[in-house]
Task: structure prediction
Amino acid sequence: MIIIGLGANRPGDLGQPRETIATALDVLAREAGHIVARSGFYRSAPVPASDQPWFINAVASIKTSLSPEELLALLHRIEARFGRVRRIRNEARVLDLDLIAYDERIESNAGLILPHPRMHERAFVLLPLAEIAPGWVHPRLGLTVERLIERLPPGLTAEHLDSRSN
Result:
């Protein structure tokens, strides 16, 4: 299973974060392959904690013929087209696309770490992932997504938004 994390906490040319993520999913489907599953939207505090706006997040599973390196490069190009400029780590952003996992691959090189090195610490990744892939197992840790959620520190959560929320 190839898993992409999506997030945004700043409006962009395409509107508010929720609209930006929805459009990014359309672009991803056109340019990377087929969207197999997509979570609902979640609202989460910035990590690390800061005074920037809260994020809207989602997770998608895709099928693609791209290699992990090619897919990561595509994600960065899509972010740039949406107006993301990488200046300061953890700054507010119009769009954030992360390659969370690529099947069961475990890799670590200069440009790519799989699975994502902090995904197991992020409620905004784990909760939507459990929605689309209950029982998913972290390739490095050997723990299910449900067990990873149980291990999150108290208070670290993400709020599921229904279709009426922003």
